[in-house]
Amino acid sequence: MDIYERLILVHFRKLIGARFYNKNRKGSPRDNIGHGTHVASTAAGAPVDNASYYGLALGIARGGLPSARIASYQACLTDGCSGSVILKAIDDAIKDGVDIISISIGISSIMQSDFLNDPIAIGAFHAEQRGIMVVCSAGNDGPDPYSVVNTAPWIFTVSASTIDRNFQTTVVLGNNQSYEGTAINFSPLTHGKAYPLAFGEKVAASFTPAFDARNCIPGSIDPKKAAGKIIVCVNEDPNVSNRIKKLVVEDAKAKGLIIIDTEGQLLPFDSGTYPSAVIGESTGSRILSYINSTKKPTATILPTKVVPRFKPAPVVAPFSSRGPGGLTENILKPDIMAPGVAILAAIVPKIIPGYSPPGNKTSLFSIRSGTSMACPHVTGVVAFIKSKHPHWSSSITKSALMTTASVSNNLGKPLTNSSDYYANPHEAGVGEISPIRALDPGLVFETTVQDYLYFLCYFGYKPKILRSITNTNFSCPKISAEKFISNINYPTISIASLKKNEDIRKIKRVVTNVGSSNATYTSNVEAPPGLKVLVFPNRLNFSAGLKRAAFKIFFDGKEASKGYNYGAIKWFDGLHVVRVVFAVNVE
């Protein structure tokens, strides 16, 4: 997660503001990095015709709700993000009267604090108390499990997905075989001329380990051997980024770079005018076989082309952090998925050292990837829904988006992850945001501040601490245990532990009808083999004057497979489909 972040807050009045936080009171809130500009324009940027990144992704660029106002709170500096400053920025935003807070910040999943020591969680709780939705990125530590951050239930946690546009470059070998790689490059190379091709190990500097050279670690490549060649590197060392590999081979006067992605993270690496391509392992093995099959292997790398209507999409981004949540598995996280790969948005127009843009000119737009890019997509959608339903609470809006999310890709098949397996809720949450559907969800789950206080009680915090935080006379239930977290009125269900020899687990939920005043909903259960799920009652009747109804779900794992079992309960009235995702860990 890039530390050069800022908090972006959407405001629906005409007031536009910007604050910055510097103990010396010097500087300005102007964005010098570009991250804040990118996410702000994604959430609420005005429409711009003929927007592109040096001609790539040409079209109309616009934010999620162009009519929304933006107040910017620069909470991070080049040396990091102070927890006290994050809290101060959130408090200022609350006082300024914002409607939505969007935070594309997240600490490492290894270092995350508990809920009452995490400044984002604390600040978000205070915002939620005042009816302000807080949307956060899930983190970029995927595809490892237990890597999701910003997991408090009062935070709307967003994972990242691909979109139906891809950026590809062609690698042409001397044997006339060609392969498509992922890249953003403006290569000056053409079909007309090929260049010597070499694996990193074969151009190693003296006394350099083969591992270092094939990973193109700084100092591992001999310029005398690499000059004028296209170098093939691998990415076995997670500490050496593609950008560093590019600088290493470019400094060695190599003609271009091919990176064999061994982790399945085929993301478009932006190398400017320097020829580059990222390819998968299977394609990489073919290229290495070609290198070993001839004395004089050659290749060329062609400039990037845009592939529209790319399929399948959306796909869970490989970097997107996964659940279960490390602090508690009784809340299903991440919540939802949104576009976060190769997103075109506004940027600070400057040239980064070591980067060679076309014509050595700046661009008003850039293409970036990360859950930081997914977060403002949801923020913009929340703003859009709030513009249509201004009286909906943050939890109603959140529920509307979660129970109406899309679970199919543009092939009409279930969502997948970057390994081509079906995506589960710990990867994609409830699915991809579907803004239009969310305007009319039918039924919603209202999660109150009291629910969140019960959550903190069940998690183990003492009533005295909670009273000091909330400034209320709140008291915890007499019986508090972590397993009761599953019973707070959340739009999804997660059970961290269901013993095979345990009695049937009962979960309760309450729904509010925001659709037709006369409606009857019938339930349908989608459960994996062996896991028995019963809904009672299986029919909910709403008539004039009746807005709320409760139901219970009974889970029996005696015959289920061990590990997480995923499924959903669907409520249907002939018009609306209200989908409630569940994750049950059978032990």
Automatic annotation (TrEMBL):
Pfam families: fn3_6, Peptidase_S8. InterPro entries: Peptidase_S8/S53_dom (IPR000209), Peptidase_S8/S53_dom_sf (IPR036852), Peptidase_S8_His-AS (IPR022398), Peptidase_S8_Ser-AS (IPR023828), Peptidase_S8_subtilisin-rel (IPR015500), SBT (IPR045051), Subtilisin-like_FN3 (IPR041469). The keyword Transmembrane does not apply. GO terms for biological process: proteolysis. Residues 27-409 form the Peptidase S8/S53 domain. It comes from the Eukaryota. Residues 487-584 form the Subtilisin-like protease fibronectin type-III domain. Belongs to the peptidase S8 family. PANTHER family: PROPROTEIN CONVERTASE SUBTILISIN/KEXIN. This is CO(2)-response secreted protease-like. It comes from Olea europaea subsp. europaea.
